[in-house]
Amino acid sequence: MISLLLAVIYLAFIGLGLPDSLLGAAWPAMYGDFEVPIAYAGIVSVIISGGTIVSSLFSDRLTKKLTAKYVVCFSVLATAVALFGFSISKEYWQICLWAIPYGLGAGAIDAALNNYVALHFSAQHMNWLHCFWGVGTMIGPYAMSFALSYHGWQSGYRIVSFIQFGITAVLFLSLPLWRMRKNESGPQPEEKNQSVGLLRTLKIRGVPATLGGFFCYCAMECTCMLWSASYLVGTRGVSEERAAAFCSLYFIGVTVGRLISGFVAEKIGDTGMIRIGTGIATLGILLLSISAFPLGISLAGLAILGLGCAPIYPAVIHATPKKFGAEHSQTVIGLQMAAGYTGTLIAPVLFGWIASGIGLWFMVVFLALLAICMILLLEISNRKANKDKKTD
After folding, report:
1. Model confidence at 291: pLDDT above 90
2. Rounded (10°) angle between helices 326-357 and 312-324
3. Closest C-alpha among 11, 359, 64, 37 to residue 195
């Protein structure tokens, strides 16, 4: 029973990652059809991010009222409907409209599933589940590429929406699996506890620092994802086509890193994984920054950066129930998701403004500053949370 439930959750994580890389892959074809400037992709991205922030903030109330299984089922359904809406859109404003349920659904899935896994499963599964998110992000562009070759971007969104509808059906059929018996090892039955509230949660020692650290991590990740190709073109003279292909090295590093982390996370622990990951990511930034090195070293740095980032997100989430208590975990993880999405919303735009004045070379400095702030804030959070435990 538990193994079957895990398989369903793994499938849900693939579904979570599938749409995340679609807009970037499809936009070069989409903006011409809609006759809008290429920069209008940012508006769609902001709407989606805004939806994810809102649903993340309210995930605690939703999960306590409906339980995680229903939040996940209906949220995946919402993203499937939204993606189908993308596929039938004829005007740009319609894409913006469908971006609202897509963002709301994506944020709710992320917070509910992450909390459920953090409460009921080991760090090993947390890392492997996020590895499957990476698999989803790699499948999406291939589906869109296939569609663009034959039928157009609308078919790409339609294909992914059908996959999401299929995942939704599996999730609804799996609802009995979420009701685990008390005498079984592993996940325990869900209980509809009262929400502890956002303001009360923010007053818990260590929570604000954790949110700041998670903001910095997601800002660092998104900046790398969005600007690394431009960095390679602007500082290393790589062609646009090759730079776009080289960006996949970061995603490969993240996916492989999370696969490896699953084997060692239990022995090293969440805090150890965060520290090791930050050290490896810093090495990657250093290799990426030294233009005197051959291009291959810089590309290796991009992959190493992804490898270092890999365990940080799962470790921060998995540590939450232990650090702040199971009764607060859904609210804290919802706040973490909101902080992370805010980082992905602000940092790429901020760096774009900085780069226009200073230059693209500053990307590695920007990433290094975010990495330093992240580890400092997470260490502060650990110390404050540990002091509270000792006091108790």
Report:
1. no
2. 140
3. 64
Which of the pair, 225 or 336, is modelled with greater confidence?
A: 336
CB neighbourhood size of 10 (10 A): 17
Question: What angle do helix axes 248-268 and 270-289 make, rounded to 10 degrees?
Answer: 150
Dihedral Cα 374, 378, 380, 383, nearest 10 deg? -160
**SS3 per residue for 60-89:** HHHHHHHCHHHHHHHHHHHHHHHHHHHHCC
What element of type H or E holds 118?
A: helix 92-120
Contact yes or no for 311/111 (Cβ under 8 A): no
- The CA distance from 155 to 157, in Å, is 5
Tell me the pLDDT of the chain averaged across its residues: 84
Please say whether the beta carbons of 81 and 101 come within 8 A: yes
- What gap in Å lies between CA 211 and CA 343, rounded to an integer? 10
Using an 8 Å Cβ cutoff, are 115 and 9 in contact?
Answer: no
What's the pLDDT score for residue 249?
A: 84
Within 8 A by CB and 6+ apart from 140, the residues are 17, 18, 19, 20, 21, 22, 25, 160
Give residue 388's pLDDT: 60
If 0-12 CB within 10 Å is exposed, 13-18 middle and 19+ buried, where does residue 40 land?
A: middle
pTM: 0.77
Rounded CA gap, 56 and 355, in Å?
31
For residue 189, pLDDT over 50 is answered with no
Cα 278 from Cα 284, distance rounded (Å): 10
Nearest to 270 by CA among 318, 302, 304, 310: 318
**321: which 2 tokens?**
């129930």
350-368: average pLDDT: 88
pLDDT value at 10 more than 70: yes
In whole angstroms, give the CA distance from residue 91 to residue 351. Answer: 30
CA angle 240, 356, 352 (to 5 degrees): 75
What does the block give as tokens for 67?
Answer: 């339980």
Per-residue pLDDT band for 181 (boundaries 50, 70, 90) equals: very low
**Which token pair is 68?**
């995680």
